[in-house]
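INTERNAL AUDIT FORM
Audit reference: QA-55
Scope: verify that the stored structure record matches its stored sequence.
Auditor: D.O.
Record contents follow.
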Amino acid sequence: MAEVRHFLETEGGINQISVERAVAELRAGRAVVVKAGRSNILVIGIEALDERIRPTLEAVAKRRARLVLPAPRLRRLGLDRTKPGAIALPLIDLARISTLSFEVGARIDAPVAALGKLDHAALELARIALILPAVLVTPVSARDIEGEGLLRVDAAAIEVYRAAKIRELRIVGRAPVPLEGAPDTEFVIFRGGEGLRDQVAILIGRPDLAQTVTVRLHSACLTGDLFGSLKCDCGDQLRDTARYMAENGGGILLYLDQEGRGNGLSNKMRAYKLQAQGFDTYDADEVLGFDHDQRGFDFAARMLQQLGVSRVQVLTNNPVKIAALEQAGLEVVSDRRIEGRKNDHNIRYLASKRDRAGHFIDVDDASAQGVLKE
């Protein structure tokens, strides 16, 4: 056991395991303790708050609790804010917490304080857990939580968790999976990059990996990819990419578990509900406390590098993806557009991506079909 423990400690394994366990606890609606040195805070996601646990939280908090909110949510509350902040909670008022955390039209009702190291770590933990980025925190002593069985995690481990998972990205399985229209296809499964989730590289045809390889970074979209949702163009882009690669010398399609621009499926559905009320895709995310795009693509570049790819032609409308691959050391030889069908349900979404995020999308021709363009 001593040798195993030494290996885990030297590799940072124990710290990563503690973060992953903390993620599981938050997603299950339970509190965790984030610590740095002799300082501790109790952290619980606002989704888990209810009347059943309110008295316990008030007893532990002793009027010291605070609500930690990200900058986008604070802007929605009426502040000119670029950094997250904390609002004092002398009472655990569930209605007030709900209003400040995600209700449309809410306004700030108290001063907002800057965050300390532990608060920042708590907010990052919520983001990794794919819950709403709003947490209730309260300072606690070792005596307060003694015998409670609460999981404890170092703030420093949370801060470096994403980078550590990228460094440990590795192939864990691969097999041929013939696809309709692309029978010569292999699926390669990577572990890491986005925490507990697996990522997929789909090798279509037999591209020469020593030459320029056609690639697409495709973030998973359950509604569009699987069910053919009319609210986006993702399903068309996915299928058109596979077809294009099969007909043009092959390529690599990276299928990345980044639902809802990295916000997770449940938050994507919350955003869809807001869109049905008139918000565009980015404003809906901001109401929920998210920036315009939570995704990172450095781990995608590392997937390509592990496959032996160094020069790419990118199928994308997103300039951020191009820049991310270049920054990671890949040579982007060229890029091509890939556009899905436009309809009454997705035209505003596509226009928002063009106008607010700089995507290369032509939304003037509403009759356009899903085709690759120069």
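Auditor finding: record pair retrieved intact. Residues 13-27 form the longest helix (15 residues).
Action required: none
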